[in-house]
Amino acid sequence: MENDEWQERRTEPVNERDTMKNSRKTNVKSNTSDIEAKEKKEQQEQEKILAAKYLIELIRSVLEERKPQPKPEKVSMKQLFLTAKNNNLICMAYDALRQIAEPEDEDIMKKWQKTSQSCTVMDAVQRSEGNKIFRAFTEQGEIRILPMKGWIMKGFYPRPEYRQMGDLDFLIDRENRKKARDIMCGMGYRFVKNECDDTVDVYKKEPWMYVEIHNHMTPYKNKTKYEKIWERCKKKDGLYAMNWDDYYMFMLDHLEKHFYSSGCGVRFLLDLFIFMEKKGKELHRDVLEKEFRIRGEENFFEQLEKTALSWFGKEYHVGDTRMEKLILVSGAFGTDNQKYTNRQEKIQKKYKNKKVAKAMYFLTRTFPEYSYMCNIYPFLYKIPILMPVMWIVRLLCAPVTKMDRIRKEVRFWKNMGKEE
After folding, report:
1. Do residues 88 and 82 touch, judged by C-beta distance below 8 A?
2. Which helix (H) or strand (E) holds 61?
3. What gap in Å lies between CA 211 and CA 205, rounded to an integer?
4. What sign has the CA pseudo-torsion 244, 249, 253, 256?
5. Residue 171: strand pairing partners
6. pLDDT tens, residue by residue, 26-62
7. How far apart are CA 192 and CA 194, in angstroms?
8. What is the 8-class DSSP label of residue 212?
């Protein structure tokens, strides 16, 4: 009996030591896995940056009508193709790269050529349909129209198809929405949804046509700037046009919105550069700089302009500022991770305590604000009392329709507050 008790007492510390050893092994494995994941992420980011830098060289060569510099060995053709595609610069980059492509690049260049041809056809369809819509609105419906964004920029690029456009945007008066919908549906378009605090009606027509009809220039920050935009517009050939100060300011506001939301890519900076080259001398810098100061964004806008000029201007230089890195890795309209990071930073500015900030991030993503919910369920504009019900509906539906995205954001949320 004594021997049995002694044996039990003797084995207890051994078992504890084994448990501690196993625990340490698990922690070491976990730390090693975290380090490997971090290193892999950094490597992927570096590959994206290198590809984006060479994409800038390809674009510069088209603007300067010259042959591009040789492709760096560290940049793969596959990565370059994806970078051009993600930045909506497929056509422009292809016309540069095909001049120096090697025989071993044949497969990827065939794929690139096919995608570029599709973009060219898409551009022709968009411009044809856009003109038809404008004629129908102005002649049949007597609706005044103000074309926006890419429709205007296409006229400044060396070739219109170089300025790829995901959708056609234009402004109408809010009271003409019903009339506009009747015309659009009569032309074979399908109404899809309302967006942006009920200021945008979205229409679709297969295979490529997406049309966003705005009834306010922007529902976001600085929206009062554009409340009397029609009074400052001039009518030409049946359409209205902003003065270049207003157009440039709207371009910067749109860029700022994307930058602080999910990020913005190389194409946004290229738009800035090309616009400044074409219309910079017609801008009233004193008026613009005053507007920058009023908004408290003079440093941000100044840095954007300098970056655009250094990337695409005569004194070529791509630096390593935080702004430049974010733009180089973002793609045309940013990334999910950047969106999560921006949300996190916004909440952390309000709640300094890390645990509180983490809890508030979870709360605001689980029960989003009214404007966010209205973008998903437009009928809430008219029946806001149903918002608690739709929170529950959203929670039930999201795991079915957006499980991958949810997992991704949950992983990000779990890492919030952890030291780098």
Report:
1. no
2. helix 2-63
3. 9
4. positive
5. 146, 214
6. 555 556 666 776 677 778 788 889 999 999 999 999 9
7. 7
8. E
